[in-house]
Design goal:
With 295 residues, the protein is mainly alpha-helical. 62% of the residues lie in helices and 1% in strands. It is globular and about 50 Å long.
Length: 295
């Protein structure tokens, strides 16, 4: 059962509980702080990428323009309604803190964000099963699978894509995942490796650098979700929401050019290409929803 069916949703993102604005701003501040001073944490993704250092490489995504065309012309027309419900300012700010930092690092998330593991696990299964039929999934394929998985619910699809891809890329959101089995480290790496093999990559392998398709995919869906949420979910556009859209558009460059000077990456991976895909897909979804609203 998806969250869309399990909860009667009046606003977007039911996995994020109603909270006060001070609480949301405190979590946002903590998230920003931990970008520079990151707590010690398990690095299963390093184990996984080390195992794939000598290949084989994952095949590449379609070019950005072809990806946008596929999303616009092939995927979205299958679904009659592309609604994005309103999100109150506090929960929107709290969503921002989830988007910019892993939930394990933010204690306030542990009390205010609760994501059913069943949703993420079933999307993992749907994606890996589909990849066995057609090969590693490009972004249009991934969105198609997710929209079918949530009965065409736009925000729930993007939320599950984001949380699922981040969990199986880094496994640093476990403290807000409800109902997850007590996996061993080996089992976690096995699930992460299965996910890695099911998705197309954003960049070619290079000697001495990880291809990191899983990291790129979660960066892409972070950008997509940020663009859609801060463009369409606010009840009223304001300086904060416009600034958030710009911040998420350039977030990867901020991370590479500023944050990583103070806090080194666990896996040295350049996510610039992933951000370009995310910004383009996000804008395509925003345009599609706005066009539908005008009909």
């Amino acid at each position: 059962m998806t969250t869309a069916n399990a909860v009667e949703r009046l606003t977007a993102f039911p996995d994020i509980q109603p909270i006060s604005r001070p609480y949301a701003l405190a979590s946002l501040g903590r998230a920003a702080y931990t970008l520079f001073v990151t707590p010690a944490h398990e690095m299963l993704h390093r184990i996984m990428e080390d195992e794939h250092e000598d290949g084989p490489s994952q095949p590449l995504q379609l070019p950005v323009d072809e990806t946008v065309r596929r999303v616009r012309d092939d995927v979205l027309p299958k679904f009659e309604s592309l609604q994005v419900p309103t999100l109150d300012n506090a929960r929107l700010a709290h969503l921002g803190s989830v988007l910019i930092q892993f939930c394990d690092h933010i204690p306030k998330h542990h009390k205010s964000v609760s994501v059913p593991y069943e949703n993420l696990s079933s999307l993992h299964t749907a994606m890996t099963d589909k990849s066995k039929e057609v090969g590693p999934l490009n972004y249009a394929d991934q969105l198609d699978v997710a929209l079918n998985h949530t009965d065409g619910d736009m925000t729930e699809s993007l939320w599950q894509l984001f949380m699922t891809s981040r969990l199986y890329a880094r496994w640093l959101d476990g403290k807000v995942i409800e109902g997850a089995p007590e996996y061993t480290q080996e089992e976690k790496v096995g699930l992460m490796t299965e996910w890695r093999g099911a998705i197309a990559a954003c960049k070619e392998s290079q000697p001495g650098l990880p291809q990191d398709p899983s990291g790129d995919v979660y960066y892409t869906w972070t950008h997509v979700l940020g663009k859609v949420a801060f463009s369409l979910a606010p009840a009223k556009e304001n300086i904060f929401t416009r600034g958030a859209v710009r911040a998420f558009e350039g977030g990867t460059n901020i991370m590479h050019n500023l944050v990583h000077k103070f806090s080194k990456q666990d896996v040295k991976s350049d996510h610039v290409a992933a951000a370009a895909y995310g910004n383009a897909i996000g804008q395509t979804l925003v345009d599609a929803v706005r066009a539908q609203d005008k009909l």
